Amino acid sequence: MNVSIGKRWENFVNDLVKEGRYGSQSEIVREGLRLVEEREAKLKALRETIDASIAQGGSHSAGEVDAYIDERLDQWEAAQAQGK
Question: Where in the chain are the domains?
Answer without folding.
Answer: 7-59
